């Protein structure tokens, strides 16, 4: 295959990277979102359709204007002072919304909880199905299972999700993946999901290699997905075949890297799992600056700086500090003027007395 043909084909990767970052690239300019605050810290973003429903719960959510943002803010009632109380009050609202069938995201309710975190601490937990409604940052774990085939080269295992899954039913996906639920660590989650989804035994899973993470900001009809995925690579024996154990996977398939790329481009592949596959193929030298004209842009879109996007508190503090500085300068200037006037009067008095 000529190098120009490869360039034409792989340039589709840039458009795919834009797709799974559709909110990051265009969402902030829409003007229909407000920061979601807990304990004075921004932990998410809330869109207008969700705000409309939250207005029905004024004792739990404070929706108000703010001089520091054009759209205003959504704040969990500051009277809820601890983790348990905040969790309880939010859960009451979410269960009520779920019973009314207002948001499709809540149809995936599964009593599995994600942490809602500020920079340094967990503030409450929330059912995973509800997190897109609040634009809460989510964390997951993915395992790239692969083999070095003697004739086909680099080959990658993919799973096909069960048709009964609440999200992305029937879509092709990474070999193993799962959300980081309350009470589980990153490596612990990887080992647990490897056993449940692919029946990977302990003598193989011990070979997991941490490969960093990818981050992206996707939007769908279900809400906002500011996701960070912790990535692991696992080279598998040629004779190993994954077997599902939890009923959430209906098939596995081993594909050469070239066919894996083509699968990722189809609508049959889970959009929010595309970054993990692309990252793997870059790290293993299949996608390179020589065969991908938008290589650097794709790299950037695999590592969106989510940690610096929710900055309401820091921006607020900066503006308040600037305001205080201006007030201090004004007061200092006024004091100097008063002192000058007083000195002038004193000199005048001294002249008269003389």
TrEMBL record:
Nudix hydrolase domain boundaries: 138-279
SUPFAM superfamilies according to UniProt: Nudix
Annotated spans, Disordered: 323-354
Top-level lineage group: Eukaryota
Pfam families for the chain: DUF4743 (PF15916), NUDIX (PF00293)
Residues spanning the signal sequence: none
CDD domains listed in its UniProt record: NUDIX_Tnr3_like
Biased composition (Polar residues): 332-354
InterPro entries: DUF4743, NUDIX_hydrolase-like_dom_sf, NUDIX_hydrolase_dom
Name the UniProt record assigns to this protein: Uncharacterized protein LOC105233957 isoform X1
């Amino acid at each position: 295959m000529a190098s120009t043909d490869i360039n034409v084909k792989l340039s589709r990767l840039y458009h795919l990277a834009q797709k799974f970052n559709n909110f990051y690239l265009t969402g902030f300019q829409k003007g229909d979102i407000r920061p979601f605050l807990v304990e004075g810290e921004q932990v998410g973003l809330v869109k207008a359709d969700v705000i409309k429903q939250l207005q029905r719960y004024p004792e739990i959510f404070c929706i108000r204007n703010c001089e520091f943002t054009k759209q205003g803010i959504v704040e969990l009632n500051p009277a809820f002072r601890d983790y348990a109380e905040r969790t309880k009050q939010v859960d009451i609202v979410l269960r009520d919304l779920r019973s009314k069938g207002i948001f499709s995201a809540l149809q995936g309710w599964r009593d599995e909880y994600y942490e809602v975190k500020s920079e340094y601490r967990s503030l409450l937990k929330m059912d995973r199905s509800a997190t897109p409604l609040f634009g809460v940052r989510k964390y997951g774990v993915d395992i790239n299972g692969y083999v070095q085939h003697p004739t086909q080269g680099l080959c990658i295992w993919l799973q096909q999700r069960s048709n009964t899954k609440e999200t992305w039913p029937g879509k092709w996906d990474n070999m193993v993946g799962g959300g980081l639920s309350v009470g589980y660590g990153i490596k612990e989650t990887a080992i647990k999901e490897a056993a449940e989804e692919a029946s990977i035994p302990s003598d193989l899973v011990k070979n997991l290699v941490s490969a960093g993470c990818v981050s992206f900001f996707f939007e769908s009809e279900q809400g906002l997905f500011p996701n960070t995925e912790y990535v692991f690579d696992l080279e598998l024996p040629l004779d190993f075949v994954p077997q599902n154990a939890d009923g959430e996977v209906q098939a596995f398939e081993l594909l050469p890297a070239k066919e894996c790329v083509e699968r990722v481009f189809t609508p049959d592949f889970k959009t929010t799992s595309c970054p993990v596959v692309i990252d793997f193929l870059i790290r293993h030298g299949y996608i390179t600056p020589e065969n991908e004209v938008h290589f650097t842009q794709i790299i950037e879109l695999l590592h969106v700086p989510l940690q610096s996007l929710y900055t309401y508190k820091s921006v607020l503090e900066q503006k308040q500090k600037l305001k205080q500085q201006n007030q201090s300068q004004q007061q200092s200037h006024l004091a100097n003027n008063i002192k000058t006037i007083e000195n002038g009067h004193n000199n005048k008095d001294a002249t008269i007395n003389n």
